[in-house]
Amino acid sequence: MKAIIPPARWAAIRLFAMDVDGILTDGTVEIHSDGTESKRFSILDGMGLVQLRKAGVATAWISGRASGATTVRATELQIPHLVQGRTDKITALQELAATLGLTAAQIVYMGDDHIDTAAIQWAGIGVSVPDAMAEPFAAADYVTRRPAGLGAVREVCEHILAARRPPLAE
User: Fold this and answer.
1) pTM score > 0.85 for this model?
2) Most buried one in 8, 31, 114, 167, CB count within 10 A?
């Protein structure tokens, strides 16, 4: 069982960066006979990312493979930082942090495979999903209850948003 992340750590987050396949999707890519591909994205996850944008938290998708379906969904959700075809996730994340003037403590990174492990370890809060590979699973500070592609990203969004809300008056 992973330790509980204190609300102050979630409240410090200014960037939620994540892998795509196996995080925003269930990891399945359908390749059709005409060479096109399709992916399934959760509407719950999408709404969480929209709510983060409205709350002033930046989002980034860092994918090891380029995908037209990923580009379309990122455009639809107005994801400001889309990096595709980069397997060196830690370098991509650190470059983005430098560009945005952010420290590791201000970043959540979420991934599920070995190429995500260094980014999970570097980020202020490293997140994985229940069915991740062993290395990123072990490196994560937090493992979602919901599975990849079915609300796992939304779960993280909710932690960030809840920590940013002012406490209710008595």
Assistant:
1) yes
2) 114
